[in-house]
Amino acid sequence: MFPAYETCYPKIGDQWWLQHPEGVKALIVPTAATLSVELGNEKDVLSTIMTRKVLTIDADSKVEEALRLMVEFDVGSVIITRENAPIGVITERDVTRSAIRGDKLLSLPAASLMSTPIQTAPPNTEIWRAFETMIKLGVRRLPIVQGGKLIGIVTEKDLTRWVLRVFYEPNLPEEIKPLVEGPKTAR
Predict the structure, then answer these.
(1) Residue 89: CB partners within 8 Å, gap ≥ 6?
(2) Residue 5: phi, psi to the nearest 5?
(3) Model's pTM, two decimal places?
(4) Quick check: is 151 in a domain?
(5) 56-58 vs 77-82, strand pairing mode
(6) Does some domain include residue 139?
(7) For 138-176, what is each residue's pLDDT tens digit?
(8) d(CA 122, CA 147)
């Protein structure tokens, strides 16, 4: 991002401290322009970090099916679709809240338990905008939609991997590589 500097130290607030190889430090206050610069060789947009295999079930399916998928794939959510378009999400939190109320979950249709409305983003959304959206809305998953079709999902884990990659660029330590590259399987 700032090639003459070897280390970027994030600060609380809107400032970055950069350490130059000769010991000179610089204070950078990022703007929308500096946040949207290219990092490495690729522009940092959601399509570069999203998981392409997304667990989905039809809205008319039973909650039991959603829970079985979540357990089988060791994930915290399933996207609910109608005619292949995302309309909601069932999360571990939704299940817990429903169980505490005493709902007879397993036989309910998935649509009755899902959180709505579902916030989505196009694949060309800049990653920092996704961070902003997710924090403002208090969501941990952001389905990626193009032409009305679900093509991926970005989760907090994907964003954490991106932060690690950006922080360590261009010299990603070997012990960090597996964390950053992480599996790209359904979640």
Answers:
(1) 77, 78, 79, 80, 114, 115, 118, 141, 143
(2) -105, 140
(3) 0.69
(4) no
(5) parallel
(6) no
(7) 899 999 999 989 999 999 999 988 888 888 877 778 887
(8) 9
